[in-house]
């Protein structure tokens, strides 16, 4: 698999270089009749200047460095409404808007090739717009298709594992748009980009976690002249801040800009957004935000709002099916008399002896010694050695795939209180494992409350059962 990933990465990079060569050829002409010879000015321009990022786990405009789960297929739909997205100037003075308003969408699909390479495809659609062409004084089309965009991305360093995350990407657009209505370029463009991301994690104060991201690139594009607008190649950059207080909510803000030649060649936009990741599997997301224009160039709206709906499908195959509740909760036939050795007799499929686990072709539950005091979610010093060994085992067994950290509680308190306490216990263990170098993306938390109490001997006292219930265990599902 590693050899395959290396070959794919080389193929992607070779494709990027080949397409870049086509874009940068100093001579030659485009096939369309209404496009001038390369190197001469045209009147076609894609006014969707700051497109939304292609990654499922990226920012909004910044690509970022996060690829997501290996062999993951994702899709999304972005819808946005823009005010005055196209305003030309004459003698440096902004005139009436060529497009006073526009409602557009982006249909997105992406696929992760292994854990480091990603390919994304985006098709922008203008659903409705009004406006008059400043050159011909004719009414613009009410809608149309924009330029198709292919984005290959290679993650060089993971922000979760290294001090600084690093990724290389090169969004490539193809002239499929309605150029007569300023929805497409006269030829292909390419934008090689360098993305950097620094994550700051604070355990156990997860509400302080945040990330800082930077994008730097250069967009190669055909030269365009409309009125006194002159647009060609341009330097692009972006700076973003993302606050990650928990697994459900992420809040971000970004500033993106582009610098080129000509009066209309300075552009900027400030964006802010909130993303919700509901559900236990985090397989779908909802995002909403707004942006304010900071420049006067074409393609920088005075303001816009946007919403997005995203979902993923994991294509990593598993060996064997997941066990049912009854089988999965197969418990020891004898209970511990005190809070140690909760899994004195391990469930089927696991050999437990100093965390030496034998993975079989099925989902297995790993009983642990990770216990808590009554009403507490604080990881005690007495279980740190066990957690250290578990962290090392997860790091050394990538084939174990996702590991579910399951929090439990006794029957004390209401159902809501039991769920909150068991969730806090699972999250506390996850934070410790991440601090020991485990990739957070491999860990899923699940709060079970008092749903599954440990099996007990007939003479076990209620207090002994309660002590053994204050625990966290792990579920492993082996992947190929």
Describe this structure in words.
The protein is mostly beta strands. The chain has two domains: 2-314, monomeric porin ompg (Porin, Beta Barrel); 325-477, OmpA-like domain (60s Ribosomal Protein L30, Chain: A), CATH 3.30.1330. Helices cover 14% and strands 36% of the residues. The protein has helices spanning 2-24, 325-328, 384-396, 415-435, 462-469; strands at residues 72-90, 93-113, 117-130, 144-145, 148-157, 165-169, 172-174, 189-190, 193-200, 210-219, 224-226, 229-231, 234-243, 249-259, 266-276, 284-293, 303-314, 363-366, 403-407, 443-447, 472-477. The strands form three sheets. The chain has a twelve-stranded antiparallel barrel with strand order 1-2-3-5-6-9-10-13-14-15-16-17. It has a four-stranded mixed sheet with strand order 18-21-19-20. The longest helix is centred in the first third of the chain and has 23 residues, at 2-24. It is elongated and about 90 Å long. Residues 1-5, 7-39 and 316-361 have low confidence and may be disordered.
What is the secondary structure topology, with strand pairs?
Elements: H1 2-24, E1 72-90, E2 93-113, E3 117-130, E4 144-145, E5 148-157, E6 165-169, E7 172-174, E8 189-190, E9 193-200, E10 210-219, E11 224-226, E12 229-231, E13 234-243, E14 249-259, E15 266-276, E16 284-293, E17 303-314, H2 325-328, E18 363-366, H3 384-396, E19 403-407, H4 415-435, E20 443-447, H5 462-469, E21 472-477
Parallel strand pairs: 19-20
Antiparallel strand pairs: 1-2, 1-17, 2-3, 3-4, 3-5, 5-6, 5-7, 6-9, 7-8, 9-10, 10-13, 11-12, 13-14, 14-15, 15-16, 16-17, 18-21, 19-21
Helix pairs in contact: 3-4
């Amino acid at each position: 698999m590693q050899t395959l990933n290396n070959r794919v990465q080389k193929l992607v990079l070779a494709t990027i270089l080949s397409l870049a060569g086509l874009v940068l050829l100093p001579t030659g002409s485009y096939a369309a009749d209404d496009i001038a010879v390369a190197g001469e000015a045209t009147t076609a321009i894609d006014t969707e200047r700051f497109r939304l990022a292609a990654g499922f786990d990226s920012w909004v405009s910044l690509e970022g460095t996060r690829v997501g789960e290996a062999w993951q297929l994702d899709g999304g739909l972005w819808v946005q409404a823009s005010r005055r997205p196209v305003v030309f100037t004459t003698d440096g003075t902004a005139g009436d808007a060529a497009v006073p308003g526009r409602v557009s969408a982006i249909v997105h699909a992406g696929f992760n090739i292994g854990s480091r390479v990603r390919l994304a495809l985006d098709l922008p659609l203008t659903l409705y717009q009004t406006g008059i062409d400043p050159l011909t004084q004719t009414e613009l089309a009410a809608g149309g298709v924009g330029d198709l965009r292919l984005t290959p991305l290679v993650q060089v360093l993971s922000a979760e594992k290294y001090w600084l995350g690093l990724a290389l990407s090169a969004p490539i657009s193809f002239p499929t748009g309605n150029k007569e209505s300023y929805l497409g370029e006269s030829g292909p463009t390419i934008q090689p980009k360098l993305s950097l991301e620094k994550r700051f994690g604070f355990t156990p104060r997860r509400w302080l976690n945040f990330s800082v991201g930077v994008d730097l690139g250069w967009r190669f594009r055909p030269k365009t002249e409309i009125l006194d607008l002159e647009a060609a190649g341009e330097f692009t950059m972006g700076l973003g801040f993302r606050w990650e207080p928990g697994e459900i909510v992420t809040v971000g803000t970004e500033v993106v800009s582009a610098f080129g030649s000509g009066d209309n060649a300075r552009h900027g936009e400030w964006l802010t957004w909130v993303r919700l990741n509901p559900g236990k599997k985090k397989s779908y997301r909802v995002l909403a935000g707004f942006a304010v224009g900071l420049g006067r160039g074409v393609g920088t709206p005075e303001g816009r709002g946007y919403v997005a709906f995203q979902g993923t499908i994991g294509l990593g195959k598993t060996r064997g099916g997941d066990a049912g509740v009854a089988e999965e909760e197969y418990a020891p036939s004898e209970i511990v008399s005190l809070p140690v050795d909760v899994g004195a007799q391990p469930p089927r499929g696991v050999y437990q002896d100093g965390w030496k686990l034998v993975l079989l072709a099925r989902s297995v539950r790993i009983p642990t010694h990770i216990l808590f005091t009554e009403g507490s979610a604080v990881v005690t010093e007495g279980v740190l050695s066990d957690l250290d060994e578990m962290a090392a085992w997860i790091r050394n067994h990538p084939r174990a795939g996702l590991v579910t950290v399951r929090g439990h509680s006794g029957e004390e308190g209401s159902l809501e209180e039991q769920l909150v306490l068991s969730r806090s216990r699972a999250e506390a263990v996850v934070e410790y494992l991440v601090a020991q170098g485990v990739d957070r993306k491999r860990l899923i938390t699940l709060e079970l409350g008092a749903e599954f109490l440990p099996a007990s001997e007939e003479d076990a006292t209620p207090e002994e059962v309660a002590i053994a219930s204050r625990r966290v265990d792990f579920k492993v599902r082996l992947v190929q």
